[in-house]
Amino acid sequence: MMSSSGGIGKEREEGPQSESSQRKVVRTACPLCGYHVFDVEIENNRVERVRPAPVPGNKGDGVCLKAVRALQWHYPEEVRGAIFPMIRQNKGGPWKRASWDEALDLVAKRLKETKETDGSQATAIMIGTGALMGGIIGMQTLGQFAEKYGCYIHTHGETCYVVRVIANIVTCGALLQPDLEPGIKNGSIWLWGSNPEASLPPMVKRIRLKQKNEGSKLVVIDPRRTVLAKKADLYLPVKPGTDLALILAMLNVIIKEELYDKEFVDKYTLGFDELKKHVAVYTPEHVEDIVNIPASDIRKAAEIYAKDQPAAIFAYIGIDGGPHAFQFHRAAVSLHALLGNIDVAGGMLLREKWTGWLASSAFKAQEGKPCAGQPYSIYTKFSNEGSPAYFLESVLRGDPCEYKNLLIWGYNTVRMHGDSNRVREALKKAEFIVQVDPQMNEVSDYADVFLPVRALLEKQELGSLWGSFDNDQLYLVEPCIKAPGEGLDDYEIVWRLSERFGFEHWKSFEEAANETLSKIDYTLDKMKAEGPWYWRETDKKWKTRTPAFRTSSGKIELYSKVIEEEGFNPLPTYFEAAETHVSSPNIARKYPLIATDFRSPNYLHSRLHDCPGLLKVEPEPLVERQGLRKISRKELSDYRWDGLVLAQAY
User: S-S: 465 plus which of 183, 262, 471, 496, CB 3.0-4.6 Å?
Assistant: First the structure.
């Protein structure tokens, strides 16, 4: 375990201060991506400067533009829409300011009535990125409320992170994450559908230094020729949606050419013979037409992975949102297992120490109660939450249960979901909607109650990567500036609501944080004094313990009986996605282009698009055609792309 030289959350004096200047520097965690600890300079309740703090575990070097400009902007009052609780006098009627007691009494009354008449499963809590970021106590608290009330929680985890964690847990018992620690040798670094130039700019410098100083090979697999792709040792422009076929072909080469670690495979894996037989058909020559990559380059990729070890593979949201995300991540664990590239410095690390949200189950299954997405039993069973994609079916069709009440927590469902027209239809049909958010947005058009929550640097929270997920670093998100109006922290809103049901709950942030930190033998006072809790072990834990891995068999399950028992293919199997040139040739003849989205370095998913400093840098949605420069909305008329419709993207 390592800690910083200075405590997090402490104010640091910088030069003479006076009451009139009110100048201070606060060390806190980034409330946007959750990757960095910052020193934030505050003057007169405004952010003047943001710079990285010298603490272990910061995932890169420097500060990204969106953090600097968004934190300086910081949701001014004029864009929030409401800074006090608001209620409608009738469905769709005008908003009226209310007290917290009046608003929460109304929410509690409605939830109690619904539970009495339709059952608690008629209520769903939907949590978005706005609440997940830096929100361990908030997530635990919402999970406790949902468990006591008897309803399910939905996050957007099907297309971001959760599906990856489930695949890892099922296959090897814990989440695997790439090790890019400074001073640690990486034989190869793989960016598979990941573009840190946009998602995590401070990490780019570290990658380039490893290429230059350590000789690490860089492989980029992406439909787009990104900036890093141009500097890669190997760039594979994979056809969108075919990544699983590509990784199966790599497995084929490594097994057929016997490039794998036979001792590790024999001792620590289950189902190798079945996997060997299964991938035999995925030869590079067979797969090249599927993925649009020459067989020779597929073989080269497999050889780099096998020979340039340890290998750190970054395969995140670009894969998570695809048609084969679960099975791709299972295949990726199999790839690492073939080379024994697990819990190895510079390779893939087992994240078992802190088990934040998923493994310790902040969300609990509601026995005997249906939830949206139960047909997808793997997801609901292992995450203890409903399917975010399937919630529309529960609202609109009552399948498998009817959601009448929606508590929408930091989640702009209109922007975040595909088919926004259908989302609007569902929001219009829901009988009662409570919106908890720092600002009013498209969801507010349908909400019955609006509860203002503190934003970004106004919060006090316990944070980790993406809020409350299994990770190697925990830190304090300390309030740096005073929130306008009457906004509260997420957990305080839940506690006040819990009191109206007689539910037990933590009484203070200190109590909640200390109980949470006790799982890792840490305390809030120690964190304030010593800095972030940072854990990094690369000791090949599987060598010295029994069972070696936390799976049902105690081994890495290349062939998964757990998945088989749920009615799914126990081995990663590629199939052509819907509406492609292969599966829907008639559609493809009319619409020959393949569309895929890409991340902007200036925004965070659907957030921050009203920040003037970022709008100045990127004022319009952009379309990019491979081989051409980026194309703005104004230039679209120059291209005859029948069927390409740009709605308001932000």
Answer: 471
pLDDT, tens only, 370-414: 887 776 678 888 888 888 778 888 999 998 889 999 999 998 999
Say how far apart CA 133 and CA 136 lie, in whole Å. 8
- What is the token pair recorded at 568? 């799914």
Residues 200 and 307 grouped into a single domain: yes
> Cβ–Cβ contacts within 10 Å for residue 72, how many?
15
User: Quick check: 7 pLDDT over 70?
Assistant: no
User: How many structural domains comprise the chain?
Assistant: 3
Tokens, residue 606: 């659907």
Domain range holding 444?
80-158+360-459+481-516
How far apart are alpha carbons 454 and 470 in whole angstroms?
24
- Comparing CA positions, the residue from 587, 598, 622, 585 lying closest to residue 223 is 598
Helices (H), 339-470: 377-383, 391-396, 413-416, 420-429
Number of helices and strands (H, E) in the chain? 26, 24
- Under 8 Å between Cβ of 352 and 550: yes
Sorting pLDDT into bands at 50, 70 and 90, what band is 232? very high
My answer on whether 511 and 375 are in the same domain is: yes
Residue pair 281/288 in contact by the 8 Å Cβ criterion? no
The CA angle 339-341-346, to the nearest 5 degrees, is: 135
> Is 103 inside a domain boundary?
yes
Do the beta carbons of residue 318 and residue 195 sit within 8 Å? yes
Burial status of residue 326 (CB atoms within 10 A of its CB: 0-12, 13-18, 19 or more): buried
What are 365's two structure tokens?
A: 């299954």
Q: Are residues 331 and 314 part of one domain?
A: yes
Between CA 324 and CA 221 the distance in angstroms is 16
Three-class HEC string of 62-104: CCCHHHHHHHHHCCCHHHHCCCCCEEECCCCCCEEECCHHHHH
Do 430 and 560 belong to one domain? no
| Within-domain flag for 14 | no
Residues pairing with 108 in the sheet: none
Q: Which amino acid is at 190?
A: W
> Of all helices (H) and strands (E), which one includes residue 462?
strand 461-463
Compute CA 277 distance to the chain's CA centroid, rounded to the nearest angstrom: 34
pTM for the whole structure: 0.89
CA distance 149 to 500: 11
Instruction: List the CATH number of the domain containing 101.
Output: 3.40.50.740
Nearest-angstrom CA–CA distance, 298 and 219: 12
